[in-house]
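QA checklist item 7 of 12: single-chain prediction sanity check.
[x] sequence parsed
[x] length recorded as 335
[x] structure emitted
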Amino acid sequence: MTFADEVKNAVTPRAALLVLGVLALQLLFITSYIGALHNPKPTDVPFGVVAPRQVSARLVTELNGLPGGPLDARAVTDEATARRQILDRELDGALIVDPRGTRDTVLVASGGGTVLADSLTKIVKKVEAEQRRTARAVDVAPASRQDFDGLSAFYLAVGWCVGGYLCASILAISAGSRPANRERALIRTGVMALYSIAGGLGGALITGPILDALPGSFWGLSGLGALTVFAVGMITLALEALTGVVGIGLAVLIVVVAGNPSAGGAFPLPMLPDFWRAIGPALPPGASTWTARSIAYFRGNAVTGPLLVLSAWAVAGTAGTLLTALRRREPDTQG
């Protein structure tokens, strides 16, 4: 047998295509992470201004005209409203102008990301210094001291997502990527549901009572974890049912390559480039990270949209898995 024959036997056309697919995934991984995270800077951050009427409009215009457009400033009636809108996650910060002195207050929320809170404080203090005023920072939704840079919610979401697609991948590798029939598909869905409940409970237990990294409702985080794991797991099973082992790579593309850098974890969404800021909320890691932070630091506010996103992925994955099994006429000898 010639060397060329040995190569053909060792690397089949299918294996060669899979290797090329892995190479493409690797390059996309590098492009996505570096593209999203190499130059973070705030852009159009929702920011309130509480000031006397005669200076409010001028100050809003000045803040909106800063080089690079870091702030999307808007007038707010009073400090109580500004605080409420920050806790409702409508604003990321606010400037409270003292009409009787030169020492103002900048409200931030490090629970939504310490990097963003620090950036807002620096921007406002620079503007204030140019006007011979000073500003003190007040954190209305502070991150836990055990939650360095407010990253625990992101790492928790990533762990749940990894568990979801790894469990689905193991089910595929161990007994065939395509479910043989409706019963097999239902069994895999049931296994995924039980695993998701365990993963949600375990993640919330480790992050909360054991490590004390995140405050907030234990059961709220557990439910979020179960939904996150199930959504990622079922979309992975659906992709595997449709495309075979390639589905694992597609799941990694959605969740890891596109989802993780756009999740607003290392840098909150207002600090990401436009593309990643746009896709992040629509993908499981971003929706889960946002919701975990809301549960931990923002009284569970502003979670309806992200929970609907996760639910949509879960429903689509379940429907895809079951419908693909129903359409198959011949049993899969692997499954």
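[x] summary fact logged: The two ends are 35 Å apart (CA to CA).
[ ] second reviewer sign-off
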